[in-house]
Amino acid sequence: MPVFTRLRxxxxxxxxxxxxxxxxxxxxxxxARRTLRTRFADFRDRHPTATRNTRxxxxxxxxxxxxxALLLPNRIEALHTxxxxxxxxxxxxxxxxxLALPRRPRLVVAVVSGVALGAMTVLNLLDMGFLxxxxxxxNLVLDWELLPDAxxxxxxxxxRTVAIAATVGVFVLIFLLLSVMALAMVRLxxxxxxxxxxxxxxxxLATVVWxxxxxLGLQLGGIPVASDRTAQAVTIQARRVHDTLRDEAEFQKIAxxxxxxxxxxxxxxxxxxxxxMIFTFIESYGRSAIEDPVEAPGVDxxxxxRTEALAKAGFHAKxxxxxxxxxxxxxxxxxxxxxxxxxxxxxxxxxxLMASDHMSLTEAFKKTGDWDTVxxxxxxxxxxxxxxxxxxxxxxxxFQMGYKGPKFSWSTMPDQxxxxxxxxxxxxxxxxxxxxxxxxxxxxxxxxxxxxxMVPWDDLGDGSVFDSxxxxxxxxxxxxxxxxxxxxxxxxxxxxxxxxxxEWLERYGTKDTVLVFLGDHQPIARVSGNHASRDVPxxxxxxxxxxxxxxxDWGWTDGLRPAxxxxxxxxxSFRDKFLTAYGSTPHPKKG
Length: 591
Hints:
Helix content: 40-55%
Strand content: 5-15%
Distance between the termini: 126 Å
């Protein structure tokens, strides 16, 4: 043991070995990388009050966003504060589901329901736009193809840059809306889960209050406190889809039935043989132009003055009202309803009609073999297969009339120029047959700025004369955002179109000319009002007194301005009434 102790305590006398020098630099350990989570934790620790307040603000914003979406109406005029002071039953049901589900299913349901609520908000906004411009809600089945037309309208009215920016902005807004709504739902569901006991009591209390308010019919400012707005909106959209699909099948049968479908050519419009027939639609020429306090004074004065001028030239007129199948836009629905005798109120019906062999009013003249048939279409800027349905031997689009002047917003050329080219290219030609023409005028198309002005007919040339008029005109962006300005300029545009058409008739019409002109639809709600009718004026003008004698029993008003109490027919009834009045014999074709 002593030997062992001595050995253990003996100092180490072995020589020291120096460490080898290395040529490699000594490695330095990298500093720990701070994650975003770590940084947030540090900020939270340093600023607990700010963090807590921020969380509350985010939570409140999420609640406001979700409640606002659940209570959002689908009409612009309904956007009032009282609409957002109700209790949505959907929020109560959503809270109950979130409290009942485990964490993972709860998060999935929150994301899905958030995206669905965002999509429903988009549909409500689309409804607002369609109700404002077309007087009807957005159709999930049919209306997607109208959105490119809306983009083209913005480009024509506001410029390409604005149109592109607006299109990009809409897509970004939709993406953000869907994303933020999903995140808001997740945040609220997490809040409920963390405070389950209090949330359960609050949900039960809200349920009792909602049921009582619903049972008692309690209202604030005329609006029910108990709301099921989103459930109603979903029901409305589902009903629209169902009705659209059912209507498609039903209309295919309707289109096959035609009271004059089997009428021999010799028995079609015999009382108009030898007449040059002109059917003209004036864009947005509606009842408001004649009766609205803002627009009517100028338009009525123009109609009265033009009635007098035509009378001096030997022409006389009778006028009435038709109820259009469309409102604010989709002019082709009004055109096809008038000419087919069928109610063409949506795009599906229009497509079905165009593919059918149902006889249009203009085609009836072609079937006789006694008329040449042409179309003047300054608003058409692409192929137009519909010309076959309208029975046109030929038609001229916006690029086939030699126009070298400026566009007037959406309108490719002024009506006066289009009518003069109709005269130069078609109406003045020597023919072996009289002419039946379908003319669509566009100068009164929204946004009603800039508006062309009448120039001496002999000075029209290639349309360059309108350069200075277009440059001096008003900016569309200044008009489109103001209801009073839109009303005033709309009235002026109708005055221009009516003047151009009737001056053309006065200048180039003959004893055998018969002009039928009408509006295709009322202007948008910003101009015609939220509760305006769908009525449009219609006039028949001729020199031959026998032409107007044929419609004496219609009860129409003498002159170009129909009386307030003049007969009102559905637009779809005009074809058969016209054919019958001028001697056509019905020979029904049954589906």
